[in-house]
Amino acid sequence: MLLEDADIGKTLLSKLNCPQCGNANTFTDARKFNLMFKTFIGPVEDSSAVVYLRPETAQGIFVNFLNVQGSARQKIPFGIAQIGKAFRNEINTKNFLFITREFEQMEMQFFVNPKDDKKWYDYWKTERLNWFVSLGMRKEKLRYHDHHPTKLAHYAKEATDIEYEFPFGWGEIEGVHNRTNFDLSRHEEYSGKSLKYFDEESKEKFVPFIIETSAGASRSFMAFLVDSLYEEEVKGEQRTVLRLHPKLAPIKVGIFPLVNKDGMPEIARNIEADLRKHLKVFYDDKGAVGRRYRRQDEAGTPYCVTIDTETLQNQTVTVRDRDSMEQIRVSNDKLKEYFVQKILTAQD
Ligand code: GAP
Question: Which of 33, 69, 93, 286 is the 20 to 30 A CA-CA neighbour of 277?
Answer without folding.
Answer: 286
